[in-house]
Amino acid sequence: MANPTVLLIFGTRPEAIKLFPVVQALQRRGGMRVRTCVTAQHRGLLDQVLEIAGISPDIDLDLMQPGQTLDQLTARLLTGLGTVLDAERPDRVIVQGDTATAMVGALTAYYRKTPVGHVEAGLRSGDIHHPWPEEVNRRMIAPIADLHFAPTQTAAAALHRENIDPASVHVTGNTVIDALLATRDRIAAEPELAVGLDSLANRFAGKRIILVTTHRRENFGGGMEAIARAIARIADREDVALIFPVHPNPNVVSVMDAMLGDRANIARIDPLDYPHFIRALDMAHIVLTDSGGVQEEAPALGKPVLVMRETTERPEGVAAGTARLVGTDESRIVSEISTLLDDNSAYSAMARAHNPFGDGHAAQRIAEIVAHGFGL
Ligand code: UDP
Questions:
Q1: 1.10.10.10, 3.40.50.2000, 2.40.50.140, 3.30.365.10: which CATH number matches 5-173+360-374?
Q2: Is the pTM here over 0.90, yes or no?
Q3: Any idea of its EC number (predicted)?
Q4: Which residue among 98, 265, 270, 356 is least crowded, i.e. fewest CB within 10 A of its CB?
Q5: How many CA atoms lie within 13 Å of 59's alpha carbon, on the beta-carbon side?
Q6: Of 153, 91, 92, which is closest to residue 121 (Cα–Cα)?
């Protein structure tokens, strides 16, 4: 009998970062035909990760179009992925997280009665508008999947509360920690992978670096403007420098271009490829973000992370004391940053390395469970 086929479907940068360790672990495990399909919901950011991870997708739907609505994206994903599944006829589909690609990937598999494994299952903020539309995307995958790879006990408990069969829920850790640790090791062995930040490190020598990322849809508009005002006020201090890889979404770029202008101690730069971003995290004194993945990476590196959101589906970083929710209120962001800059004990209390999200072996556990499901 032919080896069973596992098809991994993904479309954005964070999905690629969190799935490349799974692709590699499945290939190492053997006995399965491992196929990858990218929707390219985010084209450029996805390609940066594929290149570094050495993945050439078997199928590339190239679905990104500038300014497409969620309706248009979802409709194109449905027909595109449906056609792929009919051609590939996989024995299992694997999706990750909470994007439109993940939700529609699971739905098209369900329409064909193909079993679905969900990596990073069980994250819940409890508010369908924060993060939007991710909270509903991930909730919709839960009743479809028959293998739920929960990163933490908290995530597993959320699935249990939704009456998901406990036998189908596996606490594996988050594959983001696998990606982070493997990439740190690679940078140590091949420093040329992240040399692009040397000039910024020199330019900002002696200053404390604040690494900023923002891209959440629900922060577009007023939230983004408040974030820009806060960044400008923080940059009034001479003892700090901000490294800000700006997400290419026009809702982010246009606000930051208009409101931040040219300032000596703000480096507004293009999105960094993954090794360079890990190096930037290493250089940072404080991280200011509304990202999901960065909330997981910063605690692992012992970097205080201020989260510009009202709620989080990643309470483990907050419980560990490394992450704090600060919302998108300009004054709150400025005062929280100032406290960390001016009060050493407040800083030390947050700057402790914790790994509540995983031990770096999540992908291997996932590969084992998938193989076991095929009787391998
Ligand atoms: N990241 C990156 N380059 C950047 C900014 C972020 O490689 O310039 C990585 C980061 O390390 C994390 C992931 O992208 O693993 C987070 O992606 P994003 O914030 O876009 O999405 P989210 O995690 O909020 O879904």
A1: 3.40.50.2000
A2: yes
A3: 5.1.3.14
A4: 270
A5: 20
A6: 153
